[in-house]
User: Fold these one by one.
Assistant:
Number 1:
Amino acid sequence: MQDFQVVRARALLEHAREIVTPDQVQAAVRHVADVLNERFRQPDNTTYPLVLGVMGGAVVFTGTLLPQLDFPLEFDYIHVSRYGDDDRGGQVVWKVIPRQNVAGRTIVVLDDILDEGETLAHVKQRLLDMGAAEVIIAVFADKDIGRRKPIVADITGLTLPNAFVVGFGMDVYGYWRNLPGLWQIRQQDLKPAEPETEYPIPDVKAPGTGLG
Ligand SMILES: O=P(O)(O)OC[C@H]1O[C@H](OP(=O)(O)OP(=O)(O)O)[C@H](O)[C@@H]1O
Ligand SMILES: Nc1nc2[nH]cnc2c(=O)[nH]1
């Protein structure tokens, strides 16, 4: 079983293409840090933001970014998943909800990727419903999907083409969150879409045919 995992993980990466180098990744994180520092480091700033990393994908982004922030902050995480081990999004599932009282506070939400935007739109709305005064969305990457999204990030590290990527916290079927750069997975290595459930068409006879 473990052999299978290793072989499958390696095969996926063998056919993948690096589209963002580790240096470019670090520059993107630096950019997000610079914008946040500019926003909160001013001497007259009295806001003590609650920074929430969206687990699991944001774990690497969060761990890289936090030591680059130079203002007082409180950190915690929330855990939300929409893709599970799949390469297509489904329902937003909350695994850990915000534990602090967010009412009246400025919240900075950190996530690895803004793709269709469903996850972060949902997270932002929930925080606002809980009384947050302000929700700032900072993403490592924003994917150019060629259509409108339900949310726009306030701070973006870099923009990606419309392809499924892994690395820097992002996984394919659970693999390769640990890569320091971003890799595009070959399209044919992604699972085909689930076929629509097909229901048998009932054999309806016209009335009066004498059948059935
Ligand atoms: O913009 P969307 O289309 O909603 O997709 C973005 C979300 O997808 C990923 O999470 P995922 O559900 O894969 O869980 P993970 O963080 O555990 O990988 C990623 O971390 C974002 O939270
Ligand atoms: N790994 C990964 N997770 C995602 N979640 C939403 N989009 C993506 C993506 O391109 N790659």
Number 2:
Amino acid sequence: MSKGSVLRVLGSMSGTSLDGVDAAVLETDGERILGFGPSDYRAYTSTEREVIRAAFGQWSGPEVEAAADVVTSAHIDLLSQFEDIDLIGFHGQTLSHDPAHHRTLQAGSGERLAEMLGCPVVHDFRSADVSAGGQGAPLAPFYHHACARWMKEDKPVAFLNLGGIANLTWCDPYMPDPSQDGAILAFDTGPANAPLNDLMKTRLGLAEDQDGRLSAAGHVDETIVAAVLTDPFYSDLPPKSLDRLDVVDLVDRVGALSDADAAATLCAVIAATVAAGVRHCPSRPGRLFVTGGGRHNPVMMAMIAARTEGAADPVEAVGLNGDMLEAQAFAFLAARVLRGLPTSAPGSTGVTAPICGGFVTDPGKLAKIAL
Ligand SMILES: Nc1ncnc2c1ncn2[C@@H]1O[C@H](COP(=O)(O)OP(=O)(O)OP(=O)(O)O)[C@@H](O)[C@H]1O
Ligand SMILES: CC(=O)N[C@H]1[C@@H]2OC[C@@H](O2)[C@@H](O)[C@@H]1O[C@H](C)C(=O)O
């Protein structure tokens, strides 16, 4: 792909909260956002969800293979609905993440997708970064930087993703290249919805604390919040990233509390760890734009605003789609991979030098998009 060519890229993301697959079209040259296209979502069935969940924390074997099949099939279902696509960016589903041992596993077959959909697919975005000593996550920050430039922000801003895990990107839109030193600082701040969903599931058999209704009725146990914050992860300087399994024990920390108090306390833990993350930023971000499902939880949003002593606005406030931002991010990164541009840098994953991650599987169509 030559500099300046605009592609219609379909990005897809299957996130840690295991609700389903998001897919969105982005028009991009890998440096700029040039247009937004259609998007769609396919929920996992409860059976599919359990097959994937059974493989969490594993690296190989029959459960991993079964999970990969479910992930690939769900993506084929969803992605085959889109038309006029030049390229697909396929994140897959993270099953295990252990950057300290240079390994991370995103289940799903980019090769099968390319073959079934007859379209070039970029996949396995994280392995090259962890092999080179990076955290392999978060990877959306380069797209957050492009969003800040698209928004024509003139001061550093921050993006907070409240998915299963929370990640924060501080970025300076004045610097044109996201891989430049000082353009970005990004890292996982700690838990987001994952422990709250686990609490709702084990205590009440529900998928989530819808609209924060249970949390709103509870009281925060500040002793527990303070105790969680003593975990060195929160004071450690970035870069840092988390595995889904790193936050499961938080449900035990609130085990003695009533349902409502436990939910409220978990929301406060999320907000306090986000606030600890904001304190790691090079400068106080002018604005904090929130993406991911947690922005729909008014209790979580209010606690974040209170504990960061600032405003936390959903990204919709600036015309972005907070349900599809991660899918768009992997569309953006796929275009960067085709151009050989970096997808991570010391400021985003701690990798020693900017690196282009991701593999391209081409069923014979790439020649058509002016490489
Ligand atoms: N109306 C709502 N009220 C409360 N919580 C909500 C609401 N809508 C979504 N959520 C929360 O958001 C979660 C989904 O968020 P999202 O889709 O951003 O996660 P993900 O992409 O799977 O995660 P990650 O970014 O960690 O990979 C749900 O599991 C739920 O906990
Ligand atoms: C290893 C992995 O899949 N990490 C996810 C997870 O979900 C949120 C947070 O933890 C983030 O680090 C990352 O996802 C987003 C899309 C990212 O890479 O930017």
